[in-house]
From TrEMBL:
The keyword Transmembrane helix applies. The keyword Transmembrane helix applies. This is Uncharacterized protein. It comes from Rotaria sordida. Keywords: Membrane, Transmembrane, Transmembrane helix. The chain crosses the membrane at residues 6-26.
Length: 349
């Protein structure tokens, strides 16, 4: 009987120590959202500190006062605002737990670099996912995130001449789900099927129930097919960049380009081209289609690696030249002709 009491005491002590450690970690890192975001993902409990970072609107005109401050959780554009730039960037941040906390303005530095030597002004809307579940949770936590963000992009699309979506990993997933609504969409290492993530990624990176993972798969497929078959009422292009030597990226890519361990079929109706990365390739600045690019890299953080090697900004500039291509130019006609040829490469295993 005495042994059972000691065993019970030890169990209680261990549980108390675990909760105390979690509490201290949350308290220490509460400003970065390290652990609150994961707790929110599993419990669906909203935290005001995280919700304030859900959306950040940065107009090019610093004197613009048309948008209320503190309305990040449910940002709505002021339809009467007269200070808008022709171009709007919409950035979807990746998994906070992996990169070290909720990043409120991810890609902002790269946007500035792209436009540094130009007179082009741009507005930017930065998104984060407090629940870390592929943006599938809306601000009211009713699993209506896909509808919420697509409606928001549609609304902004009526206010700007060009809408550019950009994101990596978890953020890249949302880019692929909404690319049919934008002018140019760029996704790095997107997770198109959350079920294929390893256990450590699910614990430390992003949480997504199986039933919601199906939402991601279906929407990505529908979006790609819609773009590739020109079912939109406007021209749009989606560029996906994957690391060819990354096991995680290979699993995601095989679901689209076929092959892999389970010999999956090629989704030809979704793809325009699948190529090794070449910045001089004409498809880099095309204005339509779904284009997949493979880089000789082992890193899932491909965009960061490209930035370190000074390749990211020139590559983004090539993609964004498509925003100035007219529908009836010779370049567009050539692009349409190139879309007829689908090139598939083998992923090195």
């Amino acid at each position: 009987m005495l042994q059972w009491k000691w065993l019970l005491f030890l169990i209680i002590l261990v549980v108390v120590l675990i909760f105390l450690t979690i509490y201290l970690l949350i308290k220490r890192h509460r400003g970065h959202g390290y652990f609150l975001s994961k707790f929110s993902a599993f419990t669906r409990i909203r935290f005001s500190g995280l919700e304030k970072r859900r959306q950040t609107y940065c107009p090019a005109n610093n004197k613009c006062q048309c948008h209320l401050k503190g309305s990040a959780a449910h940002i709505e554009p002021n339809l009467l605002c007269t200070h808008r730039s022709p171009t709007l960037y919409m950035s979807f941040a990746g998994a906070a737990m992996v990169v070290g906390g909720v990043r409120t303005t991810e890609w902002r530095g790269s946007m500035r670099e792209i436009h540094r030597d130009t007179n082009d002004e741009f507005d930017a809307l930065f998104f984060t996912d407090p629940a870390q579940c592929f943006y599938l949770q809306d601000p009211d936590y009713q699993w209506e995130g896909l509808t919420y963000y697509r409606n928001l992009i549609k609304l902004y699309g009526t206010l700007y001449q060009r809408v550019i979506l950009i994101g990596a990993s978890l953020g890249g997933s949302m880019v692929c789900m909404c690319a049919d609504l934008a002018t140019v969409s760029i996704a790095f290492n997107p997770i198109l099927d959350p079920v294929l993530l390893g256990l450590h990624w699910r614990i430390m990176g992003a949480f997504c129930p199986a039933r919601q993972a199906e939402v991601v798969r279906n929407q990505v497929h529908n979006t790609m097919e819609k773009i590739n078959t020109n079912k939109n009422d406007h021209n749009c292009v989606l560029h996906i960049h994957w690391s060819q030597l990354s096991k995680a990226d290979q699993r995601q890519a095989h679901g689209v380009i076929g092959g892999g361990k389970h010999s999956k079929p090629i989704q030809t109706e979704c793809l325009t081209s699948v190529l090794d990365f070449d910045i001089d390739n004409a498809n880099m600045s095309t204005s339509s289609g779904v284009h997949i690019w493979f880089h000789r890299s082992k890193e899932h953080i491909l965009a960061m690696q490209l930035k370190r090697t000074n390749q990211l900004i020139p590559m983004l500039k090539r993609h964004l030249t498509a925003t100035s291509i007219g529908l009836n130019t010779i370049s567009h006609i050539l692009d349409e002709k190139q879309r007829q040829d689908l090139v598939i490469i083998n992923i090195s295993l």
